[in-house]
Amino acid sequence: MGDNPLPDFDAGAHVDLRIGGGPIRQYSLCNDPGIKGRYRLGILLDPNSRGGSIAAHAELIEGAVVEIGMPRNHFPLVSAAKGSLLFGGGIGITPLLAMAYTLAERGAAFDLHYSVRERSRAAFFQELTEGAFSDHVHFHFNDGPAGQLLDMSIALGAEPDGRHVYVCGPAGFIDFITNEARMRGWPASQIHSERFDADVDKSGGSFEFVASSSQRSFIIPSDKTIAEVLLAAGVDVPVSCEQGICGTCLCDVLEGVPDHRDLVQSDEEKSTNAQIALCCSRSLSPKIVVRI
Ligand code: FES
Fold first, then answer.
1. Of 81, 138, 200, 246, whose CB count within 10 A is highest?
2. Could you tell me if the CB of 241 is within 6 A of ligand 1?
């Protein structure tokens, strides 16, 4: 690390990772944030991936030099929470591991529910069973006996009572946990999720897009995203996931009403229409002016 130690990060943070000339992908930092100068990633080898995990497994060997971004956190712990319920599905356990370390160090009330198809596929199993917070961990194996399957009425308890839910995993898992919590009266402001893969609907009608710094105007056609049009015109647009899940492309809206398609802003943030994700969102107004 020499004179440039790795910047600190908070639980829930991720980094952009690029291997070779491959695609940029986002991976959660899953080690104890209290231990400085170290980043650990947990990357599931997915043969159906768009290249990120395959490259990572082939090329992330000791001594390899890789390009990463600064840690960014769209999935932070709420410090005022009276308790935290962490739900991880499959490799979605990674940000929750960092959260568990932080909460355990704070002496906070929390439970970590880890749902996985079968025990042999559980990542970080030993750490979860033998680590400092193992008393807080509940495993739910799909192929295990009925008594250990995830029962949301037990996991969530009676009342939200100032507690917050955090969920990460496949889209279906996130939807399931989120819906169960909502059905049981948990307000949206106390349910937090992070997706690592998403199919975002980018279709829609055409509209005018104005980049405020240059006052250049672009027509965004129905089959292109704002980012695609701007990049093709040589405008420097910060993009990374291009799926509406990382937040890299969020820019301030100065005029107009966004048609939010991203999965990174909360409903509350979207309702302010203060920012728009250029990789996927569109415009409800015929014209939108954005600070870029
Ligand atoms: Fe990731 Fe737009 S590039 S949200």
1. 246
2. yes
